[in-house]
Amino acid sequence: MPVPPTPRAGSRPRPAWRTPTVWRIALSAGFADLGYQSVLAGFPLFLVLALHQPAWEYGLASGLSYGGGAVFSLAGGRLGDRLGHRRVALVGNALIPLLSLCGLVANPAWAVGLLTGGWWARNFRSPSRRAMLVEAVPRAEERSAAFGFLHALDVGGGALAGVAVLGAVAAGLPYRWIFLATVVPLVASTLCLALVQDVGRQPLDPVRPAEPSTEPSREPASRAPEEEAPEPPGARALLGAAALYGFTLYSVGFPVLAVAGPKHRVVAGLGAFLVLQGVSSATGYLLGGRLGRTPAAQFARLGLLGYLLGGLGAGLVAAAAGARLGLGPLYLGVALIGLGLGVVETLEPTAMAVLTRTERTGRGMGALSAARSVGTLVGNVVMGLLFAQGIDAAFAYAAAVGVLAGAVVLSAVPGLAAWERRALRPAGPR
């Protein structure tokens, strides 16, 4: 009988959550970002520099895309709970290539409309794709690593998009061909999702001790239903912080325009996009499983390393632009924004999965995406208007609201810690 090979000394076994299903969902995310992030990286330059439109029009276009997407996020999450998340995710993902057509028209209104339509399709599928990952990883303590892995491949695709667009623009290729080529990875993204089997709803393990106990009395399942799982607090704080974070500069076009500056340094601006995406991707991959296993720990790191750190990065961009410190400090600020973004995109859905019931996972993810979208509806318009006053004014605003988002989510930590103690307390005799 063959003997299984002995693992090499120092080698780590593959994590149990990294299943073929998780790989397919994450690869779908990577191909999707490789496609639409190429458009997002080049669109502000296309609209402002090629079509000669003011920066506030880009802010308005981003606001329409994100703000209108709130309705599609809510609808997608609810329909996913009713009709099945795989089906809804496939429909939305298949319509994202609408934004690939925006470079084929010279009319700014049509270009914005096509970009917006594709982005709304992306919002429609996002809650269901997140819910699919939650269903594929039922153990709560493994979900932050899984969402970090998803974010790493997701934004890793965006980083590759930055490299591709940077090379294409430097080579003088027209924007219409750059954007049209993104149909290929977007189709590949939909094919990856189509290969995912319908996982179905599984019982989710909302919270467990850091060291699992063998004592039956410590298992939350031994409690009566009303004692077993009291509704965890923090959902409103999480949604409020997500909306406030949306009020900042979630549209990555603004860092691109900030680094490009009045001198229209196109290559430098696309370099900022690459820095933001690369740092964000590395953060999700390297730190995803180390950002806390319990909701209270996750909220604390979300507030400190996510929102507050992102606000600090925006403040550095504002200071560097105002004092004309050069590209180095600007890139450092953008890197801090990317680090904060990696933490936020990993921990927001991880925390929401704990704060919602199993049968309402899609609604919870839809509400999270909608809160972000409502914030960006206002935030991108405000950023666009402030950009006309100066880059420093726009990013100072972003820094202030990022700090406020951190304060909101940190305010929920004591209540979550108390809820965890109640959930893990041994049940008394009945």
From TrEMBL:
Disordered: annotated segments: 204-233
Q: Which UniProt keywords apply?
A: Membrane, Transmembrane, Transmembrane helix
Q: Which residue ranges does the record assign to the Major facilitator superfamily (MFS) profile domain?
A: 234-430
Biased segments, Basic and acidic residues type:
216-226
InterPro entries attached to this UniProt entry: MFS, MFS_dom, MFS_trans_sf
| Membrane topology term | Multi-pass membrane protein
User: Where found, per UniProt?
Assistant: Cell membrane
Residue spans crossing the bilayer: 58-75, 95-121, 149-171, 237-260, 266-287, 299-323, 329-347, 367-388, 394-419
* Pfam families assigned: MFS_1
Q: Which domain of life is it from?
A: Bacteria
Q: Which protein are we looking at?
A: MFS transporter
Q: Which organism is it from?
A: Aciditerrimonas ferrireducens
Q: Lineage of this protein's species?
A: Bacteria, Bacillati, Actinomycetota, Acidimicrobiia, Acidimicrobiales
